[in-house]
Structures are given as C-alpha cells and as structure tokens.
Design goal:
Blueprint lengths: L1 H8 L1 E8 L5 H11 L13 H7 L4 H6 L7 E6 L2 E7 L8 H8 L3 E7 L6 H12 L4 E6 L8 H12 L2 E4 L1 E4 L7 E4 L4 E4 L13 E4 L3 H8 L1 H17 L5 H5 L3 E6 L8 H11 L6 E3 L2 E3 L7 E9 L8 E9 L1 E3 L3 E4 L4 E4 L4 E4 L2 E4 L2 E3 L3 E5 L9 E3 L11 E2 L4 E7 L5 H13 L4 E4 L8 E5 L3 H14 L3 E5 L4 E5 L16 E5 L4 E5 L2 H10 L5 E2 L2 E2 L1
Parallel strand pairs: 1-3, 1-4, 4-5, 5-11, 6-11
Antiparallel strand pairs: 2-3, 7-8, 8-9, 9-10, 12-13, 14-15, 14-23, 15-22, 16-21, 17-18, 17-23, 19-20, 24-33, 25-27, 25-28, 26-27, 26-30, 29-31, 29-32, 30-31
Helix pairs in contact: 8-9, 12-13
The structure holds guanosine-5',3'-tetraphosphate.
Length: 530
Amino acid sequence: MADLTREIKRRRTFAIISHPDAGKTTLTEKFLLYGGAIQSAGTVKGKASDRHATSDWMDLEKQRGISITSSVMQFEYDDYCINILDTPGHQDFSEDTYRTLMAADSAVMVIDAAKGIEPQTRKLFKVCAMRDIPIFTFINKLDREARDPFDLLDELEREFGIGTYPMNWPIGCGVNFKGVFDRERRSILAFDEFHSGRNRIEGISCDITDVEKMDSLIGEYDRRALVDQIELLDVASYEFDLEKVRHGKLSPVFFGSALNNFGVEPFLKSFLEMTTSPLPRKAGEQVIDPFDEKFSAFVFKIQANMNKAHRDRIAFMRICSGKFERNKEYLHVQNNKVAKLSQPQQMMAQEREIVDCAYAGDIIGVFDPGIFSIGDTVCDPTLKFTFERIPTFAPEHFAIVEQKDSMKRKQFAKGMNQIAQEGAIQMFFEPNSGMERVIVGVVGVLQFEVLEYRLKHEYGVDIIRRPMPQQYIRWIENEKIDPTKLTLDTDTKWVQDYRGNNLLIFPREWSIRWALEKNKDLVLKEFHEG
Ligand code: G4P
C-alpha cells in the first residue's frame, strides 16, 4: 500500500497544447532530454521519415508528414514520473485533441511570443476551462522579435477570462534578448548567446540589487528598464495564489526559448511543484479516489491501424485509481464482461513497451478487438460504477455521405459505425432516413479525408461526399419541443444523432440567435454529454 501511495504521489499527467509552430515539440523534446528519456535533440520530431520509421501510423499521415493522432509519453525526472499527452501539431485537428485533454490533470500552453493567442490555442483553452484544469503558460521564442510582454498578458487575461501571474519577466527580445528576471528569487538568469546550442544551459544568475554585475550582464539601460517594469508588475499584477492556480483560475506564465533551452528547466521544476498528483474523478454520484487500491480507468481514445499488419485497434485508457496488473482480470463495465486486457502497453519516449503494472495517472493502450467505445469504464470486478461520459464536442464541418455502389451497403454501415465508435467522426441522420444517406460532422476537415481513405482501404467502400453549408450544431435540450413546428431560416436543418436526440445545424451564428428569438421555448446546448 505504501508503495502504491508513493507511486501515485509522484505522478504528473499533463497535456501540452499550442497552435502549430509555437514550439510544442521543441519544448517536449527538452523535457525528455532532462529526464534522460532521449539522448539527443531531434528525436521527437525529426523529419517525417525518421519519425515514421519507429511507428506504423496510417499511410495518410505518412503522405502528409503530420501526426493526425495524439500520442502519449512517459518519462522520469527528479523522482517524478511524468506522463505527457501530446496533441496533434497541425492546423486541422479532431475531437481526439479535445478528448486527450479529458485525460490530463493539467495543461501546458505554449505561445509564440511574436503571435500571442492563435485560433487553436483558443479552442483548446476552452476545453481546459470547461474542466477548470490548471494551465501553465510558456511564452516561447523570446530570442526572436516578440510582442510587448504586458500586451501578451493582457491578451491572455482578456481573451481567456483568467488571471495571469508572470513567474519570470523577459529582458528584451530578439537580438537584444538578455535573459529573464526570476520574480521569486529576485535575480536574473542571463541569456548568453554562446549558449544557444541545444545543451543543458541554465544561464548566469545575478541578484537584481547587484548593480555592477547587473550592468555588466545586461547593461545599464536594460537594468533600469527592468527595475521599472518589475515595480509596475509587483503593484499591478495578480497576487500569486496556488489554490487559484490549481483550479485553473490563475495561470503562471513563464518566458523563455525552448529552442535555446533557456528557461525550460526552471519552468519544468516549478510546474512539477505547483501541480498535484492525479486528481479524483467523478463517477456519477461517487468521487473516485486515485489512491484507492482498486484499479479503475476510462477509455479516452481509440486508435485504429497502429500496426497495419495486424489491422489492430488500440484503446487508450487513463488510469483513475489504484494499480493495473497485467495478469489480472478486469471488468469492462459497458459490456459487462470480465477479461484480461491484452498487450497492455505504454509509450516510453518514442518506444512502445508492454507493461506489467501501471498506476493512477498513467495511460495504457490495450488491444481492442472492437469492443471499446470512447468513455467506457474498465475496473476491478468488485467495483460498480461508470465514469462520467466524455462530452461530445461540436463538429464544425458537415457533409452528406453516401456509398457509390449500393451493393456495398453492409460494408458501408459497418465502416461508418466503427469509425464513429472510435470517435473519429460523428454521424447524424435526417429524421426518418436510414443508413444510405448519412450526415457526417467533424471537428477538423481532415477527418473527412481520413474517413474516405479508411472506408476505401479498410472496408472496400467508395463514397460520395457533398459538403454542407452548415457550421454550427446545437442539441435541442427541451425534449417536449416538436422540431417540425420550429420556425427556422432556410439553411438551418433539423437532424438526429444515433441515439435519436434532436439537433439543429446552422449555417451561421446569426441563425442561432434568430432561431432562439423566433422560438421562445427553445433551449439549445453546444456540448452534449454522452
Ligand atoms: P510545434 O510542435 O508547436 O508545431 O512547433 P515546433 O516545436 O515544431 O517548432 C516550430 C518551429 O519553431 C521550429 O522551426 C522550431 O525549431 C522553432 N522554435 C521552437 N522554439 C523556438 C525558440 O525558442 N526560438 C526560435 N527561434 N525558434 C523556435 P522549424 O524551422 O519549423 O523546424 P526545425 O527545422 O527547426 O525542426
């Protein structure tokens, strides 16, 4: 038991989020270097060809040289056992990204100092905020021209509606980047251009009151400017409050340069100190304590075709309590079946390994013969509960999908159902229509291509896909409403999900407001549980 508590206590499970190109991969790589999980930079990302040499992702990913699906990595640092949940690093992302955030206890948000908040950061933030998970901000690329740091903080506070607390403060940027001021230690960490290699360099520390040394490091002009800015910051910024940080109301902000390895280790250290070990999770009325001895987990992601030769699916689950043991039998609650989980594996840096045991906070991937769905609960057979379902996120692109060859109806239905079960797409139906004509909704348009590709290659079905003008979806919350009686504008469409719930899809935001105005009893919701 002592062992179990110790193991769980030292676990930290976080997602790393950013808009593409902000530096997420570079930062992750530095974390892994500190943990000794990789020996050289370039291992995480590399060129597309290197990366795919180690894993067998889908051909489509290979063709594009992008990672469509999120991955998970585990490494050790300073006696912490860290699980990083990576989110796809391209413009177009799917619900998978959102779901990954459901498995994390906190998030690291990487922001490009020249760009500030970008569209993808905005979307991801919204999901973090829904769960009140702590968000730690790393403002990256200070070695390049950057926006005014006060402006950047202002933007974060204004757009996200949370407080920020700069843990350090940049001194200049671009060619004039001199380092950062550590607010807790009241000293500066100087950035030395010679240290811009990818080594583990900390910079030179100096007490801010040591005028002579300060001037020799950053010059009198920058010292004076810094002193003024710090004075302003101390008066005007939020007070540090760990409780607020832990409830996602105050984001500690760090400035640095991932590529130059500047400010990365101090960031990692503070981050680990401020975050908690795995948090309790809700299962209906019950709250599941991670330190409970009995194993429980929920499926947050299903990945098809990890290995083409086996045409397998891997179900990724986040362990919420206790210890997982490879040879024990567990209950898959939704199926009401007890079985061993086959080939349980973890990603250690970039290697997949079969694991004998894992603890609350860890992510394991198990072989899935097609039985798991997103949100399913797996637990000790003596337990009886189901974790709260993962909300269904609002798709933003819709298309009508039909099979070209009507003889392939069975394969089409099977493929569509399986792919929807994995959570890669959402299916909707025109009321009273069957499986011949399906409305597919996706969060990112790339998912349409994935669907088309997979139906062709895995199920032998060619499809016709007709894009629809709608972009917004809302579930009708009040069951008593008769959708046929609603007053709607011409491009707004009434559809149903596979459970028969009624929804409306709208071409523009304006139409939503119009519908609400014209139909006083109508209650609409953007997210749908389960
Ligand atoms: P992402 O995962 O968020 O998409 O970003 P990634 O780490 O791949 O970084 C995007 C680009 O930004 C990379 O350049 C990377 O080297 C660069 N970068 C990351 N951190 C910093 C930083 O602190 N300073 C500067 N100046 N650049 C940074 P690239 O040319 O697109 O790729 P590569 O050829 O260097 O791999």
